[in-house]
Specification:
This protein is mainly alpha-helical. The protein has 2 domains: 2-193 and 250-452, Growth Hormone, Chain: A; 194-249. The protein has 17 helices and no strands. Helix 3 (40-68) runs antiparallel to helix 16 (386-412). The radius of gyration is 21 Å and the shape is globular.
């Protein structure tokens, strides 16, 4: 049990670091732009490069883990992740930094799903595995917030380049201790690789994500957005057609039509979107409107991170006692309350009484929702598809914020009403972003979790390999 606990701690640290790396450059991005002379479009690419390769390759990375074994793919991904992390801090121009971030995402796409395979091998007992999964689900939102907090501190005290020491050190330690992990060899060793499906899925997800990311600096009608989104959607439609007729599909459609899995992926995507919306827009609000420094902004998110950590430790027990569907309902309801609370902000909103309640309710809710949805997503999944499940979970986690931020930004871009000045107009836009996300969480996620409440998580799975 002690050995399993240590291995779980190692895998958990790696998973947290993978998500932390997404928000690694969030706060110091303006500093990077000034230092390297980057324009807005280049900054967007630098910020998004990691997520583009990460989300695009996750499904294929999951199938590689199912075929070749969790530990082998885990080690290969760590080597790529560590190598890319070592080149990032020495970058002196846009190309080197963007390629380093893209390489980090490639490594992460191999590590994340293979870690799920290893997690299943660590805890063969169903009850212990369910508790481990619930804890695992909260690590992602913790990693995203930790990246935001630590990047602001590093940018204020030393340099943003030092932030890359975190993924380098964690990857190095994981490589040193990887041989202590269970081999997690593939069941039967006959998982086929759907290369056409992998190419279509990777290119489709990457192009769609790129197009949506570029809406931050370009109009929706601009060629770079419309062409990327249209090509991405077309490739994903082709991917669906190939998967429906393939003998060994990369993503069996029965996997997504499973009621629990589909609902869990939507909950994970919404929770990730809520986290991204608050981390981005509240950080902008505090710095642009309140005039806070990057360090003060990071400190403002400390209660958020503490709530995530504390609730994450309790989530497993709650899921075990109350059931995953009910905990997901509670979590999404709390998250919606937190977002709607933040939707009342204006240029003069005090931190302690105006922002802090939302900063406590939201992480409490997302930690519970993530934990419960992770359990739902893998309920009944055979060992031969555990890498696939890990890839699907992480893909939802990546695509949720990409799609969500683009839609929320578009919906709130013109929400200025009768704002008397620029600060009031920006406040209205940020408040609108919180309100729109809160309403989405309250309507879509609550309806899904209510329907799930009548479905036992012990129901036999209908997923096929």
């Amino acid at each position: 049990m002690v050995a399993a606990g240590r291995s779980f701690a190692l895998l958990g640290a790696v998973q947290t670091t993978l998500i932390l790396t997404i928000t690694l450059l969030g706060v110091p991005l303006p500093v990077i732009g000034a230092e390297m002379g980057l324009n807005r479009s280049e900054l967007i690419v630098v910020s998004a490069a990691y997520g583009l390769s990460f989300s695009g390759l996750l499904l294929f990375g999951g199938r590689l883990a199912d075929r070749y074994g969790g530990r082998a793919v885990f080690v290969a991904g760590l080597l790529v992740f560590a190598a890319a992390s070592s080149t990032a801090p020495t970058s002196s121009n846009f190309g080197t930094l963007a390629l380093s971030r893209f390489g980090q995402g490639v490594g992460a796409a191999l590590v994340a799903p293979s870690a799920m395979v290893l997690l299943r091998a660590l805890f063969p007992d169903p009850d212990r595995y369910a508790r481990a999964l619930a804890t695992w689900g909260g690590l992602s939102v913790l990693g995203a917030t930790a990246g935001l907090v630590l990047s602001g501190i590093a940018a204020s005290i030393v340099s943003w380049r030092w932030m890359f020491a975190v993924p380098m050190v964690v990857a190095g330690l994981a490589l040193l201790h990887a041989r202590r992990l269970p081999p997690a060899r593939p069941t039967g060793g006959r998982v086929a690789l759907d290369i056409p499906g992998a190419v279509l899925a990777t290119c489709g997800v990457t192009l769609l994500s790129f197009g949506l990311v570029m809406t931050d600096g370009h109009r929706w009608s601009s060629p770079i957005v419309t062409v990327s989104v249209a090509c991405g959607v077309a490739l994903l439609v082709a991917f669906t057609a190939v998967e429906a007729r393939g003998r060994a599909p990369l993503l069996p459609l029965a996997f997504l039509t499973d009621r629990r899995c589909a609902a869990a992926l939507v909950i994970i995507g919404l929770s990730a979107t809520a986290t991204a919306v608050v981390c981005l827009f509240l950080a902008l609000y505090l710095q642009q409107i309140k005039g806070w420094s990057p360090l003060a902004t990071s400190m403002g998110f400390v209660p958020y991170a503490v709530a995530l950590l504390m609730v994450g430790r309790l989530a497993g027990r709650l899921v075990e006692r109350l059931g995953a569907a009910f905990v997901a309902l509670i979590g999404m309801s709390l998250a919606a309350c937190g977002l709607l609370s933040l939707a009342r902000l204006d240029p003069h909103t005090p931190y302690a009484t105006g922002l802090l309640p939302g900063l406590l309710a939201l992480p409490t809710g997302t930690a519970l929702a993530f934990a419960a949805a992770t359990v739902l997503a893998v309920s009944g999944v055979p060992a031969s598809q555990m890498g696939l499940a890990g890839g699907a979970i992480n893909t939802a986690m990546e695509l949720g914020p990409t799609v969500g931020l683009a839609l929320v930004s578009a919906l709130t871009a013109t929400r200025t009403g009768s704002a008397p000045d620029r600060f009031a107009a920006m406040s209205q836009q940020y408040a609108g972003a919180f309100g729109a996300t809160g309403l989405a969480a309250a309507t879509v996620a609550v309806l899904i979790t209510l329907s799930l409440a009548t479905t036992s998580t012990a129901e036999p799975s209908r997923r096929t390999a």
